[in-house]
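Bumping with the actual sequence this time:
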Amino acid sequence: MRGSAKGKVDVTLQDDWTFEGTVVNADLHSDIAIVKIHSKTPLPTATLGSSSKLRPGDWVVALGCPLSLQNTITAGIVSCVDRKSSDLGLGGIRREYLQTDSAINVGNSGGPLVNMDGEIIGVNIMKVLAADGLSFAVPIDSVSKIIQHFKKSGRVVRPWLGLKMIDLNEMIIAQLKERDATFPNVNKGVLVPM
């Protein structure tokens, strides 16, 4: 997935049925993709829950194939419902994650994080390598927004505005007046240069 946003993938279900899948769309920033599975028979589906209803302490299970161990389920609790990417030292696009102590290892990534009602409330994405019990999932509400972006514009639109905050002191005002003689005499407020 990392090298290409679109292409063919093999999808193997827990009963060893293998299907050809097509990556319909992918958002590499969030590590979320839509894969269409080509099947002649109907496949089972899971219900999506709402990650906004989660509270720290809620029980969850992570499903996946960690370290190639098929059909693995680990249980834990939601530790934080809005862990910021900046808290994890991740630069770039601002994101929020669900934090859980459910074991998420290599192979669990992309698997569901499920509440006690059997609803998917997150997509397992990563863990902190240097610590046990620090795992993260993309909230399902965020995944739903990504899907809506795909449907509307074919990509995820992330508008942003860059601002630089500085204290206006006499030296900075003098420098601004040196650049532009019409710069006003100010000592408070917001400067929006045009």
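The tokens above came from a reply further down the thread. The chain has a mean pLDDT of 86.
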